[in-house]
Design a protein that fits this description.
2 copies of one chain form a homodimer. By secondary structure, chain A is α/β, with parallel strands linked by helices. Chain A is built from 16 helices and 31 strands. The longest helix of chain A has 17 residues. Bound molecules: flavin-adenine dinucleotide (FAD) (2 copies), coenzyme A (2 copies) and calcium ion (2 copies). One coenzyme A sits at the interface of chains B and A.
Chain lengths: ~550, ~550
C-alpha cells in the first residue's frame, strides 16, 4: 500500500517537506495543497523584485535553471500532485482526512492521509484602525502584493509613501520603494526600529536610514485617510498627517494556526503550533513546519516564533523525512539568526541581544567593536559589532552586526561559534581565512573577541555611549579624553566637553590630566583602539577610574558637534 | 627594576608582540630590532600595491588613520624603541644579550634582555639554478621587492614575465602583473598549482587561470637565460625557452632560524623554531612567534609550518603577554586556514585536504558541492566546495572552496565549525544569516552538509570526476545519464558518451535505461542536484549501482565537448 502524504501550504516549508518525502519514498502518494495560485514563492525576494534588482517575476518562482515550479513541474520532476488555488478548510484527525475547496470553482473535496504536514505559514498583521481597507494600502507578504508594488514602480506615478512598521520587512520595503523613486516615511510605534537589535544598534540603523527616508518613531498610525476610497494620507497618534498615495503595512506576522487549532492540535504560548524536535505536533500523524510553528530557542530553551525562510526549509526537510521513516531526524531549534540589507548596510543578529539575554536571566559581558572589515588599502568598510558572552563560562551568547562592511560573514562566524558553544577565549585565536581582499589580519570578529577578552580580564573597562550620554545629561563630572590626531579632531568631533590629547603625546602631557587620580576619565578615539591604549597607560600611571568609550566616535549614535 | 624585553623582527609577529608587551607593562623597556628600513609591513598587501589597487606605498606601512609606523610612531604611541636597519647577529643565551649591527653604518652593539622574542619570519626560497642572480629576477617577499615590481608596472616597459611557483604568492603575483598589462606564464614543477588543495580543486583553478595567463605544470626551471647581466628568458627542464624580461620566483618560504639555531635553541623537523603552547622556545627566557616557528596542527596534532599573517599576529600577541605575565595565555595551534584572490575567484582551504587527511590516517567521507552563493535573481555566483568529515564521528575535517562566489564566508563558516568540533549533522541544521542579497535560503555550506549527510546515510552514492574519467579512459562500461533539459544540453555538455533524459520525463522513460539493473549508472546535471534526485528515483526502481557525479558539470575539470 502506498503511503498517503498530504502537505498543506506551498511556499517554502511545504514544498521542501513534500520533496523530501518523495525522495524518501518513491512510491508514496504526495499531495500538496496551496491556497494561492503560485507555488514555491521566494518571498524573501519580493523586496528585490519591487526594488528593480530584476524584472522577471518568474525568477521568484523558478528553479536555478529557470523552470517555473508550477504543478506540471511538481508532477514531472517530483511526482507530487500540487493543487493550487485549493484551500484546506478542515482537518479531521479521527478519520485522517482533510477537506478542501477550490477557491476558483468553489468545488469541495475530501482526501485521506496517513501522515499530514501543516505548513500554512504566517499572515501579515494589520492595525485595527479606520481606513485600513482603502485602495493604496498593501502589505508585502504575497506574490500578489509584490506584483502590486512592482506595478507602482513601473507606473512611476506615486510620489509619496508611508511604510508602517520598522521591522525587517518594513526596512526592506523602504529600500525597495526608495529605489522606485518614491519619497518615503517610515513610521514605527516603538522607540526603535528592528526590535531584535538593542536600542543603540537600532539607533545607528535609524541614523543611516534618515539619509534616505523620513523616520518617525514612538508614534503609531491612528487612521488611514481616504478620498473616494483611495488613500490620501496617514494620520499618526500624535495628530500629524502625512500625505501619501501609498502605505505599506509591515507590523509583523502571525502564524496561520486556525486549521490546526480547530482540529484540536496544541497551540503554544507564542501563538504557533507546538512541535517536538521531530517536528511532530500533539497528534502523532500530524507534523508541522515553517512559520506556522513555534520552535525552541537553543540558547534560552524557550519557545519562540522564528519566521525565517532558511528555517522553514530546514524544518520542512526534517518533517518530510520523519513522515516517511518514522522519527529519525531532529530539528535542534533556532538561535534566531537574521540579516537584512538596507542600501549599503548589512544589519543582523545571531543569538541573544542584550535585552533578550537580560530577559532570559543571563549574567553576561558585552562589548561594542567598531572597525573595518578589510585593510584601508583594499577599501575596507566599517562594521559595528556588539558581542555578548556569558560572564562565567565566556560562552558566546549573541552578536549584532551592522554597517557597510561584510556583515553577513561576521554573523555567519558568530552563528557557527554559538552552534559550537565556543567561548571568547576560543575565538581569540580563531584561525580564519585571511587575505587583504577579504579581511584584516586580525579579523573584525577576532578583534571583537580580543576586546571582550580584555574586558573580562579587567584590562579594558568600557563604558557605553548611552551611559556616557546619560551621565553627561545628569551633569556628571567626567574627564573626557579624545586621543586622536588634531587633524581628525578638526574633521569630526563629539563636542561633549572633551579634551584633545593625541595618544602620541599623552605620556609627555600626563600633567594636564586631572590632579585627582580617582576622577572618572573616559578615553576614546575614532573606534576606541587608541582610546584603549590610552586607558591602559593611564591606569599604569595611577589613574584608578579610567574607562574606554566603547566603539568610539564611530559607534556614537547621538548628535555630534561636527 | 624595569623589565627588559627585546624583540627581533619588525613586520607582523614582532611588532604585535612588542605592542602587547607594552600594554601589559607600561614601564618595561621594549626594544624592537629590524634588519630592514621599514616596520610593520603589510606584506600580504604587496600584490595589491603591485597590481595597482592603490598607489601610495605608505598604505602598506601605516595605521588605519594614516600614520606611518616608523620609529617615531613606535616611540610616541607605544614607547617602543624600534631600531631599523639593525640586524641582530647573535643571541647569547648565557649572559642574556643580543649582538647587533647597524647595516648602514656597520656600527655594532650589545644589549641585555630579561625576555627575548624571536620573530625573524621567513625568507623566500630560490631555485639553485644558473642565472638566478640576473637583473630582472625578483621575489615578492619584501617592501623592496614590492617597490621594484610596482616600478615595472608604472614604467610599462616589460611585456612578458614568468612567475615561477604556483603557490599562494605566485598566484597573487600573476594577477598583479597581469593587471600591469604584462603577458604572464606561470611555471610549476609539480603536477598542480596550490598544493594545499586536492588535485581536482587545483585543476579548476588552473582552468580558470588559463583564461588569463599561460600555465605550465610538471616542469621546473633549469636555467635563467641572460644577456649583459639581464634576464632574457627562462629555460625549462624539458628544454622549452620562454622569452621574458621579468621573472618572479615564488617557490615557498623557509623559516629564518639561523640566529636561533646558532644559539642552541631547538629547531623542529619542519625546519622551524619549536615552541610550546605559550610560544616559549627550548630556552625559558626566549619566545618565538610568526613565520620562524613551527606550530601545532590542531586536527592532526603534528607540527607544521603555517606562514600566515593572521597567525603571526595572534602568536605575537600570546608571546607579548607571556613575556610579561609569565605563561598565562596559550596559542592553541592552527587549522591552516588560508585564502587568496585570483581575479574574480576566491580560493582557499581550512582544515585538511583529502591528501593531508590520508597522510594523517583519517578514515573520512567527502563530497563536492557546486552551487551558487545567492539566488539567481540576486546575481548568485558559483561556489565549488569539497568537504571532508570523519567517517565515524562525522566531525568536519576540512573544507576547500573556490569560485566567483563568496568563498571567504564559506571558509570562515567551516573554520569556525572545525574550531567548534562540529559534525555534519550539526551543520545540517545550522541557523545562518539568510537574506537573498547574502545567501541562498539553504546556504551553500548547509547544502554541502546535506549532501554529505546523504552520502553518510547511503542515500547519495557519489563518484568523483576523476574516478569517472579514469574508468572511461580504461574503457569501463558505464551508463552515463545527463538529466538536464535539452536546451542546457545544447549549450554545454561533457560529450563522454552520455545519454540525455531530462529529470522531468525520466519516470516515463525508465524503459530506455539498461535492462541490466546491476549496471553502473552515473547520473548528473549541471551541479548534480537533479542528478541526485534521478539517482534516488532509479534506486527505488531497482537499479542497484547508481552513482551521482559529484559537483556535476560545474565541477568537471577536464575537457568538455561543448
Ligand atoms: C517580504 C519578505 C521578506 C522576507 N525576507 C526574509 C529573509 O530575508 N530571510 C528569511 O530568513 N526570511 C525572510 N522572510 C520570511 C520567509 O519568507 C518565511 O519565513 C517563509 O516564507 C516561511 O515559509 P512557510 O512555507 O512556512 O510559510 P509561507 O511562506 O507563509 O507559506 C505558507 C503557504 O501556505 C498557504 N496556506 C495557508 N493556509 C492554507 C490552507 N488552509 N490551505 C492551503 N494553503 C494554505 C499560504 O497561502 C502560503 O502560500 C521574508 C518574508 C517576506 C514576506
Ligand atoms: C606577497 C605576500 C603575500 C602574502 N599574503 C598573505 C595572505 O594573504 N594571508 C596570510 O595570512 N599571509 C600572507 N602572507 C604571509 C604573511 O605576510 C606572513 O605570514 C607574515 O608577514 C609573517 O610575519 P612575521 O612577522 O612572522 O615575519 P616576516 O613578515 O617575515 O617579518 C620578519 C622580519 O624580521 C626581520 N629579521 C629577520 N632576521 C632578523 C635579524 N636577525 N635581525 C633583525 N631583523 C630580522 C626581517 O627582515 C623581517 O622584516 C603573505 C606574504 C607575502 C610575502
Ligand atoms: C526548492 C523546494 C521546492 C524544495 O525542493 P527540493 O527538492 O528539496 O530542492 P532543493 O534544491 O532544496 O534540494 C534538492 C536536494 O538536492 C540536494 N542538493 C542540493 N544541492 C546539491 C548538489 N550540488 N549536489 C547534489 N545534491 C544537491 C539537497 O540536499 C536536497 O536533498 P535532501 O533534502 O534530500 O538532502 C522548496 O524549498 C521551495 O519551494 N523553495 C522555494 C521557496 C522558498 O524557499 N522560500 C523561502 C525563502 S525565500
Ligand atoms: C599593528 C601592529 C603594530 C600591532 O600593534 P597593536 O598595538 O597590537 O595594534 P592593533 O591595532 O592590532 O591592536 C591594538 C589593541 O587594540 C585592541 N583593539 C582593536 N580594535 C579595537 C577597538 N575597536 N576598540 C578597542 N580596542 C581595540 C586590540 O585588541 C589590541 O589590544 P590587545 O592586543 O591588548 O587585545 C602589528 O601587528 C603590525 O605591525 N601589523 C602590521 C603588519 C602585519 O600585520 N603584517 C601581516 C599581515 S599583512
Ligand atoms: Ca537564519
Ligand atoms: Ca588563517
Amino acid at each position: 500500500m502506498r503511503k498517503k502524504i498530504i502537505v498543506i501550504g506551498g511556499s517554502a516549508a511545504g514544498p521542501k517537506a513534500a520533496a523530501k518525502a518523495r525522495r524518501m519514498d518513491e512510491f508514496a502518494e504526495v499531495t500538496l495543497f496551496q491556497k494561492g495560485a503560485d507555488l514555491s514563492m521566494a518571498s524573501c525576494g519580493y523586496p528585490y523584485f519591487v526594488g528593480g534588482f530584476f524584472d522577471d517575476r518568474n525568477k521568484l518562482l523558478c528553479t536555478p535553471t529557470g523552470v517555473v515550479r508550477d504543478p506540471n513541474f511538481y508532477w514531472d520532476a517530483k511526482e507530487i500532485v500540487a493543487k493550487v488555488n485549493t484551500e484546506v478548510t478542515r482537518i479531521n484527525k479521527q478519520d485522517k482526512t482533510v477537506e478542501f475547496t477550490d477557491v476558483v470553482t468553489g468545488e469541495k473535496g475530501t482526501q485521506e492521509y496517513d501522515k499530514l504536514i501543516i505548513a500554512t505559514g504566517a499572515k501579515a498583521n494589520l492595525p485595527p484602525v479606520k481606513g485600513v481597507g482603502l485602495k493604496g494600502i498593501s502589505t508585502l507578504q504575497s506574490m500578489q502584493d509584490a506584483d502590486y508594488l512592482r506595478k507602482i514602480r513601473d507606473e512611476g506615478k506615486v510620489k509619496k509613501a508611508v511604510v508602517v512598521g520598522g521591522g525587517l520587512i518594513g526596512i526592506e520595503t523602504v529600500e525597495a520603494l526608495h529605489l522606485a523613486g518614491i519619497e518615503l516615511t517610515m513610521v514605527e510605534l516603538l522607540p526603535q526600529l528592528l526590535t531584535f537589535l538593542d536600542w543603540k544598534m537600532a539607533k545607528l540603523v535609524e541614523n543611516y536610514l534618515k539619509t534616505k527616508a523620513n523616520v518617525i518613531t514612538k508614534n503609531g498610525v491612528s487612521e488611514f485617510l481616504g478620498k473616494d476610497g483611495k488613500l490620501v494620507g496617514v494620520k499618526l497618534q500624535n495628530g500629524t498627517e502625512l500625505p501619501c498615495e501609498l502605505a505599506v503595512i509591515a507590523i509583523g506576522v502571525k502564524p496561520n494556526i486556525d486549521l490546526a487549532r480547530d482540529a484540536g492540535i496544541k497551540i503554544g504560548e507564542m501563538g504557533g503550533i507546538v512541535v517536538d524536535k521531530y517536528m511532530q505536533t500533539s497528534d502523532e500523524d500530524i507534523y508541522a513546519a515553517g512559520d506556522c510553528c513555534e520552535i525552541n530557542n537553543i540558547i534560552t530553551g524557550k519557545n519562540v516564533l522564528a519566521p525565517y525562510g532558511d528555517l522553514a526549509n530546514l524544518e520542512g526537510r526534517v518533517a518530510g523525512e520523519n513522515v516517511i521513516a518514522g522519527n529519525k531526524v531532529t530539528f535542534p531549534g533556532t538561535i534566531q539568526t537574521g540579516v537584512c540589507k538596507l542600501f549599503d548596510y548589512g544589519i543582523g543578529i545571531t543569538g541573544l541581544s542584550e535585552t533578550k539575554a537580560k530577559e532570559a536571566g543571563f549574567d553576561f559581558v558585552k562589548v561594542v567593536n567598531a572597525s573595518p572589515d578589510k585593510p584601508g588599502f583594499m577599501d575596507g568598510k566599517l562594521l559595528v559589532t556588539k558581542l555578548l558572552a556569558d560572564s562565567k563560562t565566556g560562552k558566546i551568547l549573541g552578536a549584532q552586526c551592522l554597517g557597510p562592511g561584510d556583515v553577513s560573514k561576521q554573523l555567519a562566524i558568530w552563528a557557527t561559534a554559538i552552534k559550537g558553544k565556543l567561548t571568547v577565549e576560543d575565538m581569540v585565536n580563531a584561525d580564519l581565512p585571511y587575505a587583504p581582499p577579504f579581511s584584516l589580519a586580525i579579523d573584525h570578529s577576532v578583534a571583537s573577541a580580543h576586546i571582550l577578552q580584555n574586558k573580562m580580564k579587567g584590562v579594558f573597562t568600557g563604558i557605553s555611549c548611552m551611559d556616557v550620554k546619560e551621565k553627561l545629561d545628569a551633569g556628571a563630572d567626567m574627564y573626557l579624553l579624545d586621543v586622536r590626531g588634531a587633524d581628525e579632531y578638526e574633521e569630526t568631533r563629539l563636542g561633549i566637553g572633551e579634551t584633545l590629547i593625541p595618544l602620541g603625546v599623552l605620556r609627555k602631557r600626563l600633567n594636564e590630566l586631572p590632579k585627582d587620580k580617582e576622577k572618572e576619565i573616559v578615553a576614546f578615539c575614532k573606534i576606541s583602539l587608541r582610546g584603549y591604549e590610552a586607558a591602559v597607560m593611564l591606569k599604569a600611571h595611577g589613574y584608578t577610574n579610567v574607562k574606554v568609550l566603547e566603539g568610539g566616535i564611530m559607534a556614537w549614535p547621538f548628535e555630534k558637534e561636527k
